[in-house]
Amino acid sequence: MTDETISQSLDAGVKLETMRAVLQPLWSLPPPGPDNLLADPAFVAFARHCEAYYPAAKASFGLHFALSDALRALGLPCSQRAEAEKGDVTVDEAAARLVAALEARSITRRYLCPLDLADDLPEMAFGPVTLRKFGKDELADLFDDCALRRLYPSHRLDSARLSWVQWLVVEETEEMVPEIGRRALPFFYDMASDLGAIDVHAGQYAPAVTQALFPLLLEPWEEWTSLVGVGGDWRGFLIPWVHLETGDLFVRPRTPPTAEALTFEEAYGPRGEEYERPVTLYLSGQADESLARLDQARWDKILMAAQSDLFSTPIQHFLVRGYFTEGMDQIMAHMTTIEAALGMLADRGKAPPGNAKLAPGKRLEARIAALLQDPAAATVYEELFELRSRFVHGRSFADKVPSADRNKARSLARRVVAAMVEAAAGPAAKSSREDFLWSLA
User: Is 352 helix (H, G, I), strand (E, B) or coil?
Assistant: First the structure.
């Protein structure tokens, strides 16, 4: 009889009772616990029980580390330093959570992204995405702060200050790697591979976060911010860090960065009292009206477009990179976004019958004009391409590049990608990317 058959042959009540029985000696260990928990007879008996009855607890290098981290995250009494934190999870609750975690086939990860400098944006909820402020208790739940405090006794989540800012929260559910040991220490299972190999599709953020940001970044932030007129940053928010709540009892989470990475300022109340508040980049009133249209229907439309052949190139990757990079690299990323959207390797070859013979750069200009139905947009691209070429080929710059050029690059890239989304939602969705682009120029 296989381990999986054995596990399936036990009913839920027996599973809970037997797990409780092997946990009870561990829950009874006096503090500060054994010097080596993994060698203690109570832990060895617990590990053997998991190996015998749960296929996910297959014997492996990382198994005991996964199980010990799970016990500490659940609040193993002898491992808790602060007296007030001891005994807050009963052995019955621990047994139930362990059985559920060992039998789980999928996992839901949660990416927590603070929106630094953001104005009061309208609350949003679409697909796996939520954007709003959260109270202190809500943030403690989102971060699973109880588990963090048990695993890292010196950790303290500054939930009060973090509750002042808005959050982009993205959830991602997928099938998990079955063996908990491999999930706990994946590095040790990849030692034979090329650890420096480059994943060409990896971006600054996890794919789920990039996909969630994409609808937001299609909005005209460069037209809304109050700083554009004085050459300031056109972006309506920044994301200084992302915390991943793994949702996996057997994977030790990282401690989240502190609120110190966010931007606060001292302010004064009506009676002269001093207090702290987030720094805000104020937006025009048009922002609320436009962002309020980011709903489930809009998400579905953009998601469908992103899965079409028109988006088979890394358009999302470079649009997001263009938003979060700085200086001249921002212009370069936006130019690459346009090329990813409208360029083809075939442009350097022979054009199909009926298409004019154009240099690749001129062909992109023609496609921009046709896609946006705006000949002036092609002129903007030509000017930006000259700026890009000067930079790439090392020609000198007598002065700094004006902020207006950065904003032009962002605006043109956004307009092109937004138009590609609209095209992918129409008849072009049935065309190949090559056929659609040749139809433009």
Answer: coil
